[in-house]
Amino acid sequence: MENTSQSVSTGSEREDRLKKLEELQKQGIATYPAKVKRDHNIAELLTDFDSLAEAKTEFFIAGRLRSKREHGNLSFANLEDASGNIQLAFSKKDLGADSYKNFVKLIDVADFLQIKGYAFITHKGEKSVFVTEWTLLTKALRPIPDAWYGLKDEEDRLRKRYLDLLLNPELREMFFKKSLFWEVTRDFMKRHGFFEVETPTIEVTTGGAEANPFKTHHDDFDVDVYMRISVGELWQKRLMAAGYERVFEIGRVYRNEGSSPDHLQEFTNMEFYWAYADYEMGMKLTQELYQEIATKVFGRTNFTTKGMEYDLAGEWPKIDYRETVLTKTGIDVLSATEEQMKAKLEELQVKYEGANRERLTDTLWKYCRKTIAGPVFLVNHPKLVSPLSKAKTDNPELTERFQIIIAGAEVGNGFSELNDPIDQQERFAAQEKLIDRGDKEAMMPDWEFVEMLEHGMPPTCGFGFGERLFAFLVDKPVRETTLFPLMKPKVE
After folding, report:
1. Does residue 83 form part of some domain?
2. What would the pLDDT profile of 325-376 be if each residue is shown by its tens digit?
3. pTM, whole model, 2 decimals?
4. How many domains does the chain have?
5. Are 137 and 211 found together in one domain?
6. Quick one: DSSP state of residue 316?
7. Packing angle of the helix pair 447-455, 233-241 (nearest 10 deg)
8. For residue 43, what are the contacts with CB-CB under 8 A and spacing of at least 6?
9. Closest by CA position to 365, among listed 414, 319, 399
10. Is the dihedral angle over the CA atoms 176, 177, 182, 188 positive or is it negative?
11. Bond into 375 cis (ω within 30)
């Protein structure tokens, strides 16, 4: 429910602004014009300020009014655009009585204005614009919340994200950094010879990850389809068979699962596939990628996430999956029974879903990872939890897989891709049994993918990571680093 006093205040202000809108329109003043004259943004104006002031050159700027102060026949205001903020000075003598009166009586904070004027410095030394003409561009019918008291509720902030961004320059800056995060990633991949591709986001079967998908219906084909849960893993591997050797994609992924500080149902991931490379080569490349992201986006390699400090510089150590779980819990995930695993999880007071061996193994590992600051490479995953990864030749129960661990969570996943069609068919069959037993996160078999493997796919390394890495580097919940996270419909 809305705060009643705030609702009344906003409602009365809106009525007042509607009356001002009506008065402006009665005077024949356009309240929502399309054309704008603008030859400087505010940052450019401040850069060229001295030369413009000396020459008394008139110019046009435009932006949103953020404050307004009246002093009889002289008024001051602050105008803001995406590049900056500057003070405006309005004089009744120079504007004329009618124009000045309209500004004072009919223009509100939050309105958008076009300003014609020249640069000058006030007697207090503040760079300002002396207004010779103003034009209304947009009449705002609702006020902007107070920067200190308004939008403190998280639900309000995320639902009215446009106001949250308007009031919080640091938040706006974070999203410029997020754009740079993906720009640096894209540039790194292309510089290393990878070809950017696009693969389907709607699939007949979901592949490439273990997650519960969003399901919908394709009317024309009259078949159920799914939103993808990986960035085209099984499609990009088909491109390896097609003769491409290095491909990558940055795209949206959808998983119909619970929300948490580290999880969303819709997010951006990057995945690459590299022919004639194995997981050891993948670890070297991804370490370089993460270090380049750190230095080019943030200008440093040391970070703190959730109170855990780590440094991405240097060589990252490897830790063993089985040994880590054994050391922290006393459970050997390769030999322990399901009952022993359940008993240990219950002893540790860890909730688990599903009682099959794969889920129990994964839950034990997730308990263990929470204290690992990283960065480390987690290696030697059991085959059971890695249905698309190549088995190790010296121990077929383990796989050539690696995950990057930072601040107690996985922020990257790669492996030497399984390209043995018979082995892949057997693992898909095992996943199919899990589905039949009710495991919503088990991987859907893609038998056409197995057919592709029978035509032959070269040894390949695949890797993927997502925007969770960015959220960790800025030390914020991933929901906070999403411009418009999904919200439940508002109940009045």
Report:
1. yes
2. 999 999 999 999 989 999 999 999 998 876 788 889 999 999 999 999 999 9
3. 0.88
4. 2
5. no
6. P
7. 20
8. 83, 84
9. 319
10. positive
11. yes
